[in-house]
Amino acid sequence: MIYFPPCKINLGLNVVAKRPDGYHDLATCFYPVPWNDILEIIPARELSFSYTGLSIPGSTAENLCLKAYHLLKKDFDIGPVRIHLHKIIPMGAGLGGGSSDAAWSLRALNEIFALKLSQSQLHTHATALGSDCAFFIQDKPMIGKGRGEVLSETSVVLKNKFIIMVKPDVHVSTAEAYASIKAKAPETDLKKILEQYPIEEWRSVVKNDFEESVFKKHPVIAKVKSDLYSHGALYASMSGSGSAVFGVFSKPLDLKENFPQMSYWSGVL
After folding, report:
1. By CB neighbour count within 10 A (0-12 exposed, 13-18 middle, 19+ buried), where does 59 fall?
2. C-alpha distances in Å from residue 135, one per residue of 9, 195, 268
3. Residues 161, 209 contacting (CB under 8 angstroms)
4. Digit-coded pLDDT (tens) for 68-102
5. What are the φ and ψ backbone dihedral angles of 148, each rounded to 5 degrees?
6. How many beta carbons lie within 10 A of that of residue 55, not counting itself?
């Protein structure tokens, strides 16, 4: 079976409070974007994992697709599979590609072995793999709170809007990004803003709290956001803790030549 795990963007990202467990409470809106990896999982005589496309750092044994398999194997009598991942979504970009691959591995194994796990059960397994993983169990925008795993529905819609995604050749350490942040409760409820304000007004009220410190250290990321606005973006923001930036437009346009030597994707939502 072949699957196409998507990435996500964050419409607003507020770091609300430091938690006793060392993590932070967040408020964000995860929105799926069809910049996809390609994941193939088929029954096999022995378990194996391989990949093509972008280079994936770290040991193969630590890949989240394999971790998803072993997580289900603990609870269910599933047989060996061959997993092949063609990696397209840039890593270290704030796009959640690895989390998506993990969640879709759970979804695929649930289907292949007819485990009949509910969405709630898949959510529980996904949360064990990573904070962002749970979002990718469903295929719609969700408000994320807690570490990002406490999800609720939202009526925010960007359907038929055109999106441009740009990732400079810059690595932003998530740990470093959090170390520079000052947690504080937002002045206005993010869900209310996204659902009730027109997108043209988001620029002044929908904030990613990581931008201030990340932009100071990596001005090239700030420039990407500024350039997207200068070309007519209705709303632009860094996704997650970076380094990818997205712009939402009312109509298609090609800006690839404006961002040489950067990862670039565009499409209709």
Report:
1. exposed
2. 11, 19, 21
3. no
4. 999 999 999 999 999 999 999 999 899 999 999 99
5. 115, -10
6. 8
